[in-house]
Amino acid sequence: MKTVAELNKIPDTRNPIRRKINMSSAPRAKISDITRMTGLSHGTVSMALRNDKSIREATRIKVKEAARKLNYVPNLLAGSLSGGRTRIIGAMLTVATPDLEPILRRLQELSEAENYTLSTFFSYYDDEREAAAFRHLCQIHAEGVIWIPGRMARKSFPANAAILERSGIPLCILGIPFENDRLKHLHVGGDKRKAYEMALDYLLECGHSKIAFLSASAARGETGEMEREHLKTIRDIFADRSIRLPETNIFHADDADLGGFSAAAKIVQLNPVSRPQAIITSSSKLARSLKIGLETLGLRIPDDISIMSYAINPEDIADKWLSGINIQLNEHASAAWTNLTASGTPDENDIPGTLCYVNDYQEIIIKPELIKGRTVSCLA
Hints:
Layout: H1 4-9, H2 31-38, H3 42-49, H4 57-69, H5 76-83, E1 88-93, H6 101-113, E2 117-122, H7 127-139, E3 144-148, H8 156-166, E4 171-174, E5 186-190, H9 192-205, E6 211-215, H10 221-240, E7 250-252, H11 259-268, E8 278-281, H12 284-296, E9 306-310, H13 314-319, E10 323-326, H14 329-341, E11 354-358, E12 361-366, E13 369-371
Parallel strand pairs: 1-2, 1-3, 3-4, 4-5, 5-12, 6-7, 6-8, 8-9, 9-10
Antiparallel strand pairs: 10-13, 11-12
C-alpha cells in the first residue's frame, strides 16, 4: 500500500482519484468576522454567543445566524484561558440504562441551551475507571460534576468523591443516599415513601381494599438489593397505616423487565374472590409486562384488576396509558444543573423541588406527581 507521500508524487492525469491530498483548510472564522457582518461590538457578539440573558433575543438570533453563515466555531480553550472558565460539566454514571434517559436528555438540552460542554462517563461498576474519569475531569478543570452512582455503599465511594473535593470541583449526587452513606455534598433525589403513599392513597380513594405489590425482589445483584428496599418501603407504609398486606399478595419477580409475566401466571390461578383488586408495581417495565401477561391470560385491565406503577417512564406519561407516579427524573437533572451552574447561591425559587438541610449538607427533594392513566378503575 502506497503512503500519502508516494500518492502525492503520482500526476493527477494518471488517475483523477489520486489527487494531491491538500492538508490546508480555510481560515477559521473569528468573532471579528461576525462583528463586521452584524455591525455589533465585540462584547455584544461575545455575550450573544454565550446566550447572555442581558442581550435581547433578536440580537442573539442575529448573531447566531451570522455565526452559522460564517461557519463560526467557538474556541472553548481560548475562552477558558481568558475568562477562567471552561464551561464543562461532567456527568458520571454507573451504567447506561433506559431509566436514566430522561436525566441525560435534560442535561444535554441544558448544556446546549447554555453553551456548556457535557462530558459524560460510564464506570460499569469499575471503581478505578470511575476514579480515572474523575481525575480527568479535574485535569480539564470541569466546573462541576453530576454523579449518578449505582450504589453508595461501596468502599471506594468516599475516596472517589474526595478526588473532586481536593480539586475544589463542586459535586452534585443524584439519588438521596442512605443514612450511613451520606457525603457532605449536594444531593438531589425523590421521596420514595411519599411516591408510594400517593399511589396507595389513589387506589384507596378509588375503592380498592385488596391491594398487592410486585417488585423484582428476587433478582440478583444490585437490582435485587434496590428492589428489596422498595418492598421494605411498601411494607412499612402498610404497617404504619394498619392496612393488611398478606404474603400471598406480595409477588417476587426475578427479572426487572419481564417479571410481570410470571406474576400474571400466579395471579390468574388465585380464587377470584381472594384475588387482589389492584397491584402496585415497583417500575413501569414490570407494570407493562404484568398488563400484557394478565390480558393474554384473559383478565381485563382495569375492569378485572387495576395496575398502579412507581416511576413511570416519560413515554408512558405522554399517552397516559398507565396509572402511576412520575418521579420526575428530568427535574432531578434540572435541579442539579441549576445548582452547579448558577453564579453564587441559587435562589430557592429557581430550584425545582424542596431545598432542605440535613447536618452539614443540602438535599433537594423533587416532589412526585400522580398520573391518572387508564389502568386503574374506580370501584367507589
